[in-house]
Amino acid sequence: MIVSQTVSELGASATLQMSKKAKALEAQGHKIFDFSVGEPDLSPPQVLFDGVMEAIKEKQHLYTPVSGTLAIKKSILHYTQHHQNLSGWDVPQVCVSTGAKQVIYNALMASLEPGDEVIIPSPYWVSYPAIVKLSGARWVPVSCNEHNGFKLTPEALQAAITPNTKWLVLNSPNNPTGTVYDTDTLYRLAEVLKKFPKIFILSDDIYEALCYTHRPCPHILHVCPELQSRVLVVNGISKSLAATGWRLGWGIAPQSLLEGIEKIQSHSTSGPCCLVQHAVAQTLNTPQLEAYILENHGIFTSRRHCLVKALQRLPGMDTLVTPMGAFYVFASCRGILHHPTIRALGWRTDRELADGLLTHAHVCSVPGSEFGQEGYLRFSYAVPPKLIEEGVERLIHFLTTPSKISE
């Protein structure tokens, strides 16, 4: 077998698998209500397109430095200070990559060895454990209770730490739950981390522009700046600027870690697309872009309310808590699993439920077990309000008249 055992044991991304099945059903002529993929249906801001066209006219077509151009690094540092209220780094501490995922991959590959451990609060984004496995290290899931807002507690963090712990992953706002860590919780987590100076913190901030409760989004470096020498800040344009296919993200970190990240990148993808770098460098801190972010913030706030209100009509979801960030609702599906219609169909798990609802009701979600938490479904509201309302109405209709939907 040509494929390694490590890769053979990896599961494909559940999000993309559900989306792939939804597209196949759509190709057969079915109308699909797809709540699976975290990809905004909005267009990126016009200034980004203008920036790319400018780079094309100037015939910018050559390789850039592996870690990005000087112009985009300066622009990123300015954005980080202005939008996240984080500062204190210099240009050499920034690496620009082909998406935020590559930053995370590069950082973990550059720093982990067999025997090392990475603490990952659960529910978690599906790629964190996969990347750790590929590195040969061990990932340590720590379950976070819904009654605590799916937040990692200091006590749980302390209990998970061993002499082999090298990283803690913090994702706020969180995918899949929409959880935003408050400053008090971050402070208490920082107090634990201060006792273990060898542990680094991977702060995945890709949804920071979509925080609905605070501005800027609370950050561990706001409450404990002295951790800066141990923090990797990850961000990018895919979510906040609806530019998923543009593939541009960045990491800001201590110089020693950045050198490792750059080495990995130099032997894999090299620098990201020169055209996109130029566009982002020119526009990231413009009034047009700031206005765009504010407008999208309002759009997603409205959609969040629309989806939560709609889902509260489903069995067991009447007390559904409104998420504080990102564009996901992580909803318990235990009430639906106990509904007579679902019990009669023999669906007992969130995986069976998600697959069945897609196949028969043509509503696509992602089972919570794929994110490390059984008994939930993740719904993305990066979709139009009409689709939200019609999709949930389809679920309600299926529960009351399943035979008509499944024919």
From TrEMBL:
Single GO molecular function: pyridoxal phosphate binding
Catalytic activity annotation: L-aspartate + 2-oxoglutarate = oxaloacetate + L-glutamate
Keyword match Transferase: yes
Pfam family, one: Aminotran_1_2
Boundaries of every Aminotransferase class I/classII large domain copy: 31-395
EC numbers, comma separated: 2.6.1.-
Cofactor(s) this protein cannot do without: pyridoxal 5'-phosphate
Signal peptide interval: none
Keywords carried by this UniProt record: Aminotransferase, Pyridoxal phosphate, Transferase
Biological processes per GO annotation: amino acid metabolic process
Domain of life: Bacteria
Subunit structure: Homodimer.
Protein family (similarity comment): Belongs to the class-I pyridoxal-phosphate-dependent aminotransferase family.
PANTHER family, alphabetized: ASPARTATE AMINOTRANSFERASE
Protein name listed in UniProt: Aminotransferase
Native source species: Holospora curviuscula
